[in-house]
Amino acid sequence: MTGGTGFVGAHSVAAIVGSGHRVRLVVRDEARVEPALAPLGVPLDAVDTTGADVTDERAMRRALKGTDAVLHAAAVYSFDRRRHAAMARTNARGTEVTLEAAGRAGADPIVHVSTVGALYPSPHGPVHAGSPVGRPRERYMASKAAAEAVARGLQERGAPVVITYPPPLLGPDDPHLGDQNARLRDLLRGLMPMWPGGGFPLGDVRDTARLHAEVLRRAEPGRNRLFGPGRHVSTRRYVQTVREATGRALPALFLPARAMLPAARLTDQVQRVWPWHIPAEYGAAYACAVSAPVDEGADRLGIDGRPLAETVRDAVRWLHRQGHLTGRQAGRAARSAGASAERL
Question: How far is CA 327 from the centre of its chain?
Fold first, then answer.
C-alpha cells in the first residue's frame, strides 16, 4: 500500500488490518508510520514498512515484489499553488510507476484511489462509472485526471485495476490536517466569512476506508470503478450543518462561484510569494463551480455513508482535542464530547 501515512491511507490501513490482512506500507519516511496509525489502534506488528518513492521505478518494483494486492493511495491533495510541482510529479508519474510495478508483481486487484474531481467538469450531469476523464482547469484536479487516464489505460489493456472515486473527505484522525479538515478549522476560526455558491461532494474518511477493505475482500470482475460513499452538499447546507454541530452563528456571505473565480485566481497568484496559507483558494471556488453529484446508481459495494452531521461533529471534536480549535470555537461539539467522557 502506498500513501498509508496520509488521511485516507491511514484509515484504509486500519480497515484492512481489521479485516484480517497484513499490510506492507511503502513510505518515504518511516518515522511517520506510528503517528499516523497509533491513533487508529493499528498494532504496528500488523504492518511491515519499506522505504521507496512512488516515482522511483526500480525501488517500487522491489517494494511491491511478492504482494497479493496493491492499494495505491499516495497523492498530493491540495489547492495550494505552491505544491503544483509536487502534485504533477506524485499524482501522475507516481501512479504510472506504481501501477506498472504492481502489474509486474502479479498483484490482483490493483486498486487506484482516484477522486470524483478527476471526472469534472461533467457536461452531462451526474458522474458515473462510464463518465469520461475530465479536463479540469485547476492543477490538483488536472493531476488526478492525468492519473485517472493512466489507470483507465491499464484497465483497457486487461490489467486487474480497480479505480475508486472518493469524494473530498472529512473526519477525525487526520495525520497531516488535510484540505477539508483545515477548511473546517478555518471556518470555525472566523477566517472564512465568504463562500462560493453551488456545492461540492463530501464524504466521511471512515466510509471510504470501509470501501477499500471491501474491495480487497471481494473484488469481482466487471466491478472495477467504484464510488466512495458520500453526498453532494451545497455550501449553504455545509455551513448550516457546522452551525448546528457547534451552536455558533458563523455569519457567512454566499456569492456565485463563477463570479468569485477572478478574485480567487488573483489570491492564488499572491500565494506564490505570501509565506502563510491563504484560505481563499482558487481550487476550492473552481470545484464548487464545476462539481456534479454522483449518479444514484453508482456502485459503492452497498456501503452507505454516515450522516453529514455525524461526520462534522466528530471532525470538530477531533480538531478540538488536537488543539486546533479552542473550546469556544468548537462550541457545542466540544461541550457534548466532555459530557460524554464524564458519563463514561
Answer: 27
| Residue 204 DSSP one-character state | E
Phi, psi values for residue 227, rounded to 5°: -105, 135
User: HSE (CB half, 13 Å, CA atoms) of 38?
Assistant: 5
Task: Pull the grid cell for residue 291.
Answer: 462539481
Q: How far apart are CA 1 and CA 110, in angstroms?
A: 10
What is the C-alpha separation between 111 and 99, in angstroms, rounded? 9
Task: Give the residue ranges of DSSP H helices in 134-292.
Answer: 139-156, 179-188, 205-217, 235-246, 257-271, 282-290
Q: Which three cell numbers stand for residue 235?
A: 455550501
d(CA 141, CA 146): 9
Residue 167's nearest CA partner among 305, 326, 2, 334 is 305
Q: Hey, what CATH class is 7-170+201-231 in?
A: alpha beta
Domains of the chain, residue spans: 7-170+201-231
pTM given for the model = 0.93
Is 162 strand, coil or helix? strand
Contact between 13 and 25 (Cβ < 8 Å): yes
Which residue is associated with the grid cell 509536487?
86
Taking residue 135's Cβ as centre, other Cβ atoms within 10 Å add up to 11
Strand 47-51 versus strand 23-27 pairing type = parallel
For 248-283, write each residue's pLDDT tens digit: 999 999 999 999 888 878 887 777 777 777 677 888
pLDDT tens digits for 114-152?
Answer: 999 999 999 889 999 999 999 999 989 999 999 999 999
